[in-house]
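It would be a great kindness if you could assist me with a short task in structural biology. A protein sequence and the structure tokens that stand for its backbone fold form the material at issue. I should value your view on which stretches of the chain appear to form regular backbone elements. The record follows directly beneath this note.
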Amino acid sequence: MATNTTSVDNSGTDVTYAPEEPARLQWTQYAPEVYKAMVRLDAAARQGLDPKLLELVKIRTSQINHCAFCLDMHTKDALAAGESMERIVQLSAWEESKHFYTGKELAALALTEAVTVLTDGFVPDEVYERAAKHFEEAELTRLIAAITVINAWNRFGVTTRMTPGHYEPGQHR
């Protein structure tokens, strides 16, 4: 049974927070070979990609998929990698905050949304072509793989209700 936690906020007032929900399933214990394969795929996809760009992609994907565990993890990792709080905060509205990001980052974010949502059943040509202008073919392939992998992690996190808030930067999965 989850219990409420009480904490003191910035003004010194006691605040009672909603209870922390336990995870539904400790999936990594029941399918360790799947977990290890995911970790290997994640590591392979990340090779050659800028770590800050990769964290922005992972955060944006996790925002779209409502994966609180991955949002917690990748926000902390992005901050630890030197990403600014301002750029992380603006990420949910990146299309209205383009001046915070480079052309390459904007192309990656557009591709991230197209691959993650797939509402039209495909990635639009203009989104792909924009990304292809900013990334060499091997780098673009790894970016697509990284977007695919974070989407898979998000599905595990959301489905099993992995609990956010306990991750420390650098822990890795």
Summary: The mean pLDDT is 93.
